Amino acid sequence: MTTSALTWLLLKKQSRFVVKRAGAEFNTEPGNLTNKNTFTSSSLVNKSVVLAAGPKGKGVKLTQPSGRVVKLTRGAARAARTVSGAVRPQQRRVALARMSAILRAQRPVKATTFKRTGIRATRK
What we know:
By secondary structure, the protein is α+β, with helices and mostly antiparallel strands.
């Protein structure tokens, strides 16, 4: 039995990050990209990156397992290339989805004008 498997056996039921709701088990570890309580998703057992919003709400901050922090503020394509190279192949799609969600949330909201139609539009 490897050390990561042994660590998982000890942590899977009694970690402080485990949340049980409606018959499902979730995990709130900072490096857990899927928030599922599984061996492959756990950042305590496997080396994983942590994705967070960048400083001042611009870009993405990538914390690697070695402790190195990379700030990605030069665009989505460059950030996607960096993130996909930094994560395990199993977690690549999830990491790219998390990065896209962070960048999408940082976009400014377009002001839409409401155009009235119908009978009330002509009345003043």
